[in-house]
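Residues determine shape. Next comes a sample protein:
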Amino acid sequence: MEANTAKIAEQKSPSSLNILLRELVRDKLALVSLIFLILITAFVFGISLFLNQAEIVTVDLFAINEPPSDQFILGTDYGGRDVFGQLIIGTRNSLAIGFLVTVISGVFGIAFGVVSGYFGGHIDNFMMRIIDFFMVLPFLMIIIVFVTMTPSYDIFTFAVIMAAFNWMGIARLIRSKALQEKELDYAQASKTLGSSNFSIIFKQVLPNITSLIIVTMTLNLAQNIGIESGLSFLGFGFPEDTPSLGTLLAYATNPQTLEFRWWIWVPAAVLILLLMLSVRNVGEALRRAADARQRRG
């Protein structure tokens, strides 16, 4: 009898993983998008281990602007460099920067926002003035200035520069939700029972704003990949010897390349579009799964 009761309870309260899998299976587009993201990430990070970046970015004057062939799958650029190799390494770099910026800015923004919203009062006013100061700064211009001032930088350094000026939006969203959550009965009851602020924040408030965090972080991932690609397109991202999707797309600024040498920039443009759409589709499925978990308690 007890075993049957346990089985019924388990069926009525599926785990978060089961809810997530159910949402993904139900949403075929999100499932395809997730599979695409996993495959493209595994492919570019895996195959890049066997590629020699120094060799790929070396100029070859005897192979300039060659169309796709058996030797060069996606042809070569105006420097005779293999476009396929640049696409693989560039996708890896763009994904790595997107993930790093999302994690760094997300962790700091969530912590800053939930502390500001939960404690309120003078603490909230002080912390919000800090956010206001950073938000009035021209985001892209500040990043361009710091990138220009830095003599040499790698992926992590570039991600830190971007994240340092890209956490305020997350903090404001989390702060507004934390202001609402702290006034609810469960938070007030926990205070009455003597629970510490640390326990209430991390064991009750944060779990209850999971859906907002998931949606925000997912959309920020797509946004960060787009920002890095845009900066590289403008010439303020990575130099040509460190490919990214933006550096390949920047070749389209040449009218001859734009019209007659599609193999140089079209694959990068299509890949950027697919990555953005896939991340967005997966984010929507994660949001629905998080909302369903909260409804079930």
Notes: The radius of gyration is 23 Å.
